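lol ok so funny story. i was supposed to be doing the assay writeup but got distracted and ended up predicting the structure for this chain instead. priorities right. anyway since i did it might as well share w the group, maybe its usefull for someone
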Amino acid sequence: MPYPTQTIAGIASCDLLCCPPSLSLREAASRMMAAGCSSILVQNDDGSICGIWTEADALWALPGALDPLQPVGAALGAPPASLPHDMPLAEAVEIFRRRQLRHALVSRNGQPLGMLTLTDIVRNQGVESFLIVKRVSSLPGPQAVILPVAASPVEALQLMREQGLTALVFALPQGGYGILTQRDALRWLADDSMPATLDAGCRQPLIGVPAQASLLQARQLIQQHNIRHLGVFGDDGRLLRLLGFDDIVRGIEHEYQHELGQALRQRDEALQQSRHSLLLADKVFESTMEGIVITDRNGLIQSVNPAFSRITGYSREEALGQTPAMLKSGKQPPEFYQQLWRGLLRDGRWQGEVVNRRKGGLLYTEHLSITAIRDADGECLHYVAVFSDITQRKQAEERLHFLANHDALTSLPNRTLFLEKLQGAVERAAAKGHGLALLFIDLDRFKLVNDTLGHYAGDQLLVRIAGQLQAQLQPAETVARLSGDEFTVLLEGVDGVAQVAGRAQAILDAITELSGAAGQQMFVSASMGISLFPDDGREADTLLVHADTAMYRAKESGKNGFQFYTADMNARALERLKLEYSLHRALAQQELELWYQPKVALDSRRIVGAEALLRWRHPELGLVAPDRFIPIAEESALIVQMGAWVLETACADIRRWRDAGLAPGRVAVNVSGRQLKYGDFVRQLERVLAEHGLDSAALELEITESVAMEEGGGMVETLRRLQQLGIYLSIDDFGTGYSSLSYLKRLPVRGLKIDRSFIADLHCDSDDAAITRAIVSIARSLGLDIVAEGVERESQRRFLLEQGCDCAQGYLFHKPLPKAEFEALLAAQGCREAEALPAQ
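and the output, tada:
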């Protein structure tokens, strides 16, 4: 019998036979025959394992199946089973039996170490005492497949393939039997020769044993003849079946009797020692911290220790003669105590947790162990109960469990608990055929609350929203806070889309009713995505991902609304994810470019400056439109790195043009709110200007209207520092946001850009003309320069010039140009440094 510590590493074959995937099936068979192996490991050049090709696979490379000259890599099936080198042999036997394996790769730290086969297992089991009493006839198995004398090798191979046989028997012309095995098929494949008849190419006669032979005799015969199959013959000489290695493995059902007997002896010794200790408990239990109660066989208390009185409040005198039922709290049903006594009478011991009541009426939780003390004849003399007060520990565990499964701020279920609830709801819905709706909620512009009012106000708002969401729920529904400002609502038993839409709108309305946090008035809204079971997924994770995807579509659609998930959202989400991944690499791989669109004087059409525009030349997609990647950069915080690159590149281009004697005028660079808020942007700008030897007049910074009007986050202070540096500041896309003129006049800006949406229809829309006229008038009254963007018609140029707008950009003059073309334009128009026009 093997030692319990024997592992498969000690019996596995370490001389692995390997080949590349390109080797032909015939050559693989030849190598296996030469090495006497039943399998060959197919391995890539980098050492990774493709699979294993075995004798069984050779059946498919002979006539009627695969081409024997095709690469072995193309004929592989599932990867080989892999077992760790330190696996006990007994465990490997069970795995081979359960999974019906014939080969398994033995690996250490992911690297192949050797190959374990059925042959190795049968030869190393070391269970002779077991095998000698086990008869061949006791093994289950089908009757032998016997082919007639006239059967051809091709017919035999086809039968083995169809029935998954490792061997079959055929009748010999002179009487008796021969045997065809997978090893024979391998040899035929290797030699490229198919015998004309079965008796010409197979082993004969068939070696066998009587049905009453022992498994030990069968194994010895197999080892003696170095074969893997035996015939089993009845008393009348009739062939009953074939006996193979796998049959012997299935017959090995020993249970390591020596180890089990030793474990039982150790248990008995420990139990005897425990009984002895309990008999002496009256001498030692006075000092223990656990409460001890000793009763007679009927459960009447005979003795208690001081710890019993300290925990329960009952004195020794009050307890004697009573039963432990004096401590009952009523928290356990009668069935609990019935189960306790059944276990105690059957096993002589019981342990578990019980809620009992102290003398003063307070409940406490104890961990209780009860043991029966028996005499030499096995009769119960006493019961000894040992218990400890675990109330505080249980309370701490319950608190930790709550904290582990709930959000600390709102006390709502967290992501972990919600996913458990969602999985349970999905299983119930699938079992009962009910509908299920998952609502994914994200607050709109919540970051603005934190940035302007502080995190305390943001936390207050989250708590109030959690309460508002809970108030909207019915008893069987769940709301959770996943993270930050993300909430989920689970609606079970829904009847249709209309019902879900009504509930979703009610929840959004409840959120918008909230106002005021930390004494401040605010408008709160949310975007919601909805996925439905089973239409949008039958798995909990799938529903959550789809609801999240729909929520982002709600954000894109203008916020403060909800969207049901649709299949095309996944494609858009994957496209966006791929684009974001590519964008992370764009800077490092120099895929970004700066193009320049000239700004011209409306009267002379002379170039007076330019706007630097970011372009992304994707290696596969070509030029990606800015409106596709700039929002992604904003959301992923890449805009800060990209903005720094734009600033550095624009200043480098200005310096080169000036050194070449060209005067591009003032170059405008767009700056995002993230750049201005995070990091010391002013110091960064000073450094870049100094490195390129430029004065502040060379640069103009364009800031969107919404960023310029933001009062929080020190925005005005940052703009004033830029003004003190001498930087020309202008507001981009003026008129598209929510401008406050009283606030605008306090901003240190020097120019406004009229958004192209007002310019496009000047020739046909009187409202746009009036708005443009008003913006020009406001700019003049505030002493601000003004630039119109998107000018494409001569009539637009004349209108703007008549209103007092002096500068513009647009396709009427020039489209955005790559750096080299813009430089050529400067040279062609004679924009030399000495002729540079004065700044606006």
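Residues 253-261, 834-840 have pLDDT under 50 and may be disordered. The longest helix spans residues 257-279.
back to the writeup now i swear
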